[in-house]
Amino acid sequence: MKLTVNDLYAMNPPDGSNPLKETYETGLPFKVSMTIKRLMDDVTKEIGIVDPERIKLVQEYGKPKKGEENLYDLPKPGTKKFKEWNEKIFELSNTLVEVTYSPIDLDKLADDMGDKIIKGAFISVVSDLNKIHEQEEEAKKEKPKEKELAQ
């Protein structure tokens, strides 16, 4: 399944909150657990590839904050440097990456979890992933139809 780099950061934000990991650690049914673990591994791997590029952009366009290690002031909006920064970070954020994901039936998961509480953030992420997966599947079905019409 293809996600944008922006999607990856939404699932694994720099602030340390990670609804997938938090829910995974509380215990999930085996099949769901394996799906989430594969996804988390792929997200972590892809962020490891992309993050150095993001940091290079911050270092290239930002100015180090005095007295603050690894913190930068980014260019001021309206400047040429800001426009360049914005274009490059937009391109990076919208780069597509491949991750492993199989849709999760949230109704079945709720039944399987019984009295355990599933956080809304986890449900939201899984729901969004399910929608993206469904859209990709629909697009795959449309491509053969387009080929038939072109012939």
Major sheet: 2 strands, antiparallel
Helix-strand sequence: EHHHEEHEHH
Q: Tell me the Rg in angstroms.
A: 19 Å
Q: Choose one word for the global shape.
A: flat
What's the overall average pLDDT, rounded?
A: 89
Amino- and carboxy-terminal Cα gap: 29 Å
**Spans of at least 5 consecutive residues with low confidence:** none
Tally of domains: 1
Supply the number of helical segments: 6
Taking strands numbered 1, 2, ... along the chain, how are they ordered across the largest sheet?
1-4
Helix content: 55-70%
What does this structure look like?
The protein is mostly helical. It is 66% helix and 7% strand. It has helices at residues 5-11, 19-26, 30-61, 80-93, 106-113, 120-150; strands at 2-4, 63-64, 72-73, 96-98. The strands form 2 sheets. It has a two-stranded antiparallel sheet with strand order 1-4. A two-stranded antiparallel ribbon has the order 2-3.
